[in-house]
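USER: Write out one fold?

ASSISTANT:
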Amino acid sequence: MKKSDFNYLLPDNLIAQKPLAERDASRLLCMNKNSGQITDRQFTNFIDLINDRDLLVFNDTKVIPARLYGRKQSGGKIEILIERLLDDHRALAHVKASKSPKAGALIELDQDYHCTVQGRADDLFILEFTDISLMKLLDLIGHIPLPPYITRADDVSDLTRYQTVFAKEAGAVAAPTAGLHFNDALMAKIKALNIQTAFVTLHVGSGTFQPVRAENLADHVMHKEYFAVPQATVDAVEQTRERGGRVIAIGTTAVRALESASTSGQLISGFGDTDLFITPGYTFKSVDALLTNFHLPESTLLMLISAFAGYDEIRNAYQHAIKESYRFFSYGDAMFLSN
């Protein structure tokens, strides 16, 4: 298939710029991936679509305040987006400037902090922060890295709302957005109803927002993201199979973690980097149903859900969502793909 097969036109007014007042107040488009039948619901109905044989698998990654603003020694403005922490003092980062800084260049940051450009790694810069540990620096002067389609500056509310209530493992530069719909009350209700839950970690990178550049999908080089699947989650999946329940991934990032740990044909615990690129024709090994948000045109995530629920079915669902004025992308509404 080609990249252009996954394009669609979206009115700008349907791109959610802010979260709703309540996390669970979103709408929920439900689609049967066998029949393609579509039903419009509210996210508060999601719990009614789950039973105590099912397993909900969440991504417990935590978004770090990965955006920094600085200046060259010449005074030119620089914007830094941390992509990955290499250790306590070094990171791979995107650097936006009128002219790219060279190795050895000093970048002045807010509050008299500094970093030094050590070199390049493909499109990314290797930056060293010597004044203070990088995580402490980000906590002090970092900004929440809102996606490029959110055109406003980040504010105090984004510190909590662009973060799931179950976030635990710091390292993502983008939120696992399907998880943003869950609040503490809903998580408590899931527990009270004896619905089983499990967790994986996938540190979402900024590459999740980038459209595929190659027209032929076979030529696309997938960005790498760190993932971890603990043995407890493997055991929970096996128990779910034994009782005849469904493994329901909460978000495409949970799908990528589970499927990356299933490349041998069965789910195995472990951790590492994944560049798994899921396109139509892929056989899913560990996921039966999927809760997800709506994704960018020509994105790898749109290709993933098309592989999961069917190319024509997803195109029809997206056209329905546009017609019914669903809110799109990170702070938008949700979609439940099940059988």
